[in-house]
Amino acid sequence: xxxxxxxxxxxxxxxxxxxxxxxxxxxxxxxxxxxxxxxxxxxxxxxxxxxxxxxxxxxxxxxxxxxxxxxxxxxxxxxxxxxxxxxxxxxxxxxxxxxxxxxxxxxxxxxxxxxxxxxxxxxxxxxxxxxxxxxxxxxxxxxxxxxxxxxxxxxxxxxxxxxxxxxxxxxxxxxxxxxxxxxxxxxxxxxxxxxxxxxxxxxxxxxxxxxxxxxxxxxxxxxxxxxxxxxxxxxxxxxxxxxxxxxxxxxxxxxxxxxxxxxxxxxxxxxxxxxxxxxxxxxxxxxxxxxxxxxxxxxxxxxxxxxxxxxxxxxxxxxxxxxxxxxxxxxxxxxxxxxxxxxxxxxxxxxxxxxxxxxxxxxxxxxxxxxxxxxxxxxxxxxxxxxxxxxxxxxxxxxxxxxxxxxxxxxxxxxxxxxxxxxxxxxxxxxxxxxxxxxxxxxxxxxxxxxxxxxxxxxxxxxxxxxxxxxxxxxxxxxxxxxxxxxxxxxxxxxxxxxxxxxxxxxxxxxxxxxxxxxxxxxxxxxxxxxxxxxxxxxxxxxxxxxxxxxxxxxxxxxxxxxxxxxxxxxxxxxxxxxxxxxxxxxxxxxxxxxxxxxxxxxxxxxxxxxxxxxxxxxxxxxxxxxxxxxxxxxxxxxxxxxxxxxxxxxxxxxxxxxxxxxxxxxxxxxxxxxxxxxxxxxxxxxxxxxxxxxxxxxxxxxxxxxxxxxxxxxxxxxxxxxxxxxxxxxxxxxxxxxxxxxxxxxxxxxxxxxxxxxxxxxxx
Length: 765
What we know:
This protein is an alpha/beta fold. 37% of the residues lie in helices and 20% in strands. The protein has three domains: 101-328, Spore Coat Polysaccharide Biosynthesis Protein SpsA, Chain A, CATH 3.90.550.50; 384-479, Nuclear Transport Factor 2, Chain: A, CATH 3.10.450; 497-752, Alpha-Beta Complex (Spore Coat Polysaccharide Biosynthesis Protein SpsA, Chain A). The strands form eight sheets. The protein has a six-stranded mixed sheet with strand order 3-2-1-4-9-6. A five-stranded mixed sheet has the order 22-21-20-23-26. Helix 5 (124-131) runs parallel beside helix 12, helix 6 packs across helix 10 and helix 20 (671-685) crosses helix 21. Its EC number is 2.4.1.-. It is a single-pass type II membrane protein.
């Protein structure tokens, strides 16, 4: 019995960990059986229930009673389109659109048309352009007759006739023909109207695009039906895309049959007569608020709720009044935003107090992401030290440089903001004024923004006139704002790339590998890329070229490629110089190619591939942007592996190396952009050609062009380790860059430390 009890106890102890699982399975099976029996019985009752089916709900269509969508829901019913291919027709490749937005038929949201005239084009229209135009995604100005000179930054459409009805007719025709299929909403306003752009954009986001919308300030026709109303043109009005498409076929009839003096009345009568739609001031719960300005109105003194809620204000008599209105509405909007921020911060504090972390979980500033917490010492974000005159972390690597430009403006603004916040907190008891910035620190935290720590020497004055000098440390954050997408010109991947490869005598050992990679990745794949070789002869070698040509082997390899690929020609250019300046070499190449040529300035260690060439095409935009990739430089395998077998390239891709930020040898740019920048450089240096020896193509674009310089790491450019020869005849800066590139390309710090340790161990034994 004792033995049986011991065996039972051992069995139960072994079964104890599995008891919850067994109980869960048993309970689940029991509940599923019960639910199945209930469902079965309910189904039998429904099937066996006598009598006719229950009638649908009141007002519901028959289709809805049967579980099918009713009329008007056809657009939302999913449909399966079967794929069928006619075997008798040859297969044709389907060309898909570049962007998914185009393929899915998405439209832009809002188009704005401003009706102006020759008399007000340079006054009121310019004021509209400077105040609200940059807030709208697309804005055009329409006039009858244009002046001799169109103001800068304005897209103007002139119809050739100043008659108001004709101008409205031609404008509606133009909008339908050119933008009717691209936008969902069309906002029409006059140049004597001030519109709150952000409020108008917010309005259209709350309206359904499936309805015919004619929204504005509704006015009655003189002597007409009270139910028929038109939208007053002075306060602007909104038209939906569906209404514009339906109205377009009737515009000619409206022009011939409807007589009116005012263009807004003419358009309203046209919409009512042919579409039966009247203007409304309220739709789908959204109100179109307007405000009519009286004569000699002071916008700064307007405190009425009707004025503050207005989307459009009319009439605006002059440019100054337009700017004053914009300033006042901007102040109102800013106050609303600040109040909303305070309300949200209060809600965050109240909710955080209920969390497990309590009040300690509130970050500063409230609502901004907490500072980045590094997981290792390599992730620590360093602080940059600065004073009011100098910066001690300079872009060029120097320990100290003068504070100027945007950095100086940033420091001045942040000091003023700090003093202002202190006065706002301690007034009226204390009034602070800055005497000196003792210490300043800043760092950029990518999770929240720019952080500042300031040690300020302040003078504090009391209400009684007493003053005292004290030092105070303050912390500030300039948070990251809303991310905006910058519009860029459209580019394609079909552009031909012209590779330019400068070669010196020291590069002869690497030419064969370059040509092999070029043939494999471009010629074999029929990529749209050409190659031009630039043979740089030393004056001594140039004198002996008739006897011994140092580049004879390279020319033979080029001949073999041209025999293998009959349609390919690889030209070369011979240059004699002691100092191979990159700018002087490009001057020679630039003159031998058309202005629309896309150059890729390569080095002999570059391994060309299709992936990078496509990025070169996409990142280089004529008259807009040039591309300077940062290639990946592999470390010295002797130091990294120390006699061990080299790791597989698949597993250690971009591992045993670094991105060489000191090298500017590779570049993608258009010939036209280079010629423009080079012309400005020539006018600056006059005939001092020796200056060109201290410059690279990067410096030319940086200092003598207004283009975007896009410099980014490029994983598609991987170079094997090579000890480059640095020409001492180049400028000190270029020679220093070359030396640093060689030194940092040896190995990582851990590899160098291991090599030194092994050397010391060997010396000690």
